[in-house]
Amino acid sequence: MTQISSDLSISSADGSGxxxxxxxxxxxxxxxxxAIVAVAILGCATSSSGFLSLATLLPPILAETGWTRVQAxxxxxxxxxxxxLLAPSLGRLVDRYGVRRVALPGVFVFALGQVxxxxxxxxxxxxxxxxxxxxxxIQFIGPAVWAAAIALRFVANRGLALGMTMAGAGLAxxxxxxxxxMISEAFHWRYFYFLLAAFxxxxxxxxxxxxxxxxxxxxxxxxxxxxxxxxxxxxxQALASRLYWRLLLAIGVVSGAIAFLLLTMxxxxxxxxxxxxxxxxxxxxxxxxxxxxxxxxxxLLDRIRGNLLGAxxxxxxxxxxxxxxxxxxxxxxxxxxxxxxxxxxxxxxxxAYLVSRYFGLRHYGAIYGVLYGTFxxxxxxxxxxxxxxxxxxxxxxxxxxxxxxxxxxxxxxxCSLGRYRY
Length: 422
Known about the structure:
422 residues
């Protein structure tokens, strides 16, 4: 493997964009592209809503179908696998044709997938088939598509713009559990997916149509953009570099550890002696911390080196694991989901930003797509691995110890990435 050369590095490769983030060019970026950030936030929130609804709709789904919890939650593995398979290709499409030509037809694919889930039968094969359709639609308006669009339009405020975009996925957990529960109790769980499909066509689609630039506008903006937008390595060159694989390993470990902590937090707290209500109350600290991490992380990325920010932030969930391994931490237990939430908020910002600064923008969508696909697979696999360790050892202590060690290694890898190339 060969290390990517820094010969094409631009003047800001030595670190932050602190000065640029406050200059007139930064204001011009927002003036021309604020609407794209707004619809990207809406797109991220919409794309994640169907998947997030599984947590609250699982009881009525199991009651109606008679499936086991593992069978129903197999949708998570289908979803994560689709990201690995589709995100790189969708990134290439955005690189080549622009986000408008990908996202607008993608809304119809997304709506079709949600309707399919609502119409799924009582056989597990039907569930797998409809969630395959839904997962394809989710990727068409998911974070990989929006990250590619945002990175190409922002330089001075790229970190903040990416952070705000990814915050859309953090807004969904604040809304979806309440809305899906209300619809399920008032009507039927299937109606949530019908409503989500209708929202995507009646609200998201018009917003995207009005906000996303047409191809001739994209070409005009690209012609006037800084030369850095035309530089970068190919996907093949990125995959041939040790730098890319180190970044992929670090992000994969962190995403898996955070997913494990997020999805098993209530069960871990119950094992610690908390009742169901107390465990749920403590776990609510995750949502607000994640949103703070998304936006705050974006602001910091424009001012300090992203790999060093990642190294610091990825240490936080390791500290959370350490606290959960103690016999009693008292009221400090509320810090545990907050630490995990902060790291969850920053991790995807760091991932999206570092791809642009280490590998450039010419093939950003494809390179980021592979990284995002790995991120999604870890997201789906790690919670299942944690549950298996819980079953084998009778507690989550082994899983927490492994997660803590892996997070520390990930933090060290981030420190080793070095200076920006672009």
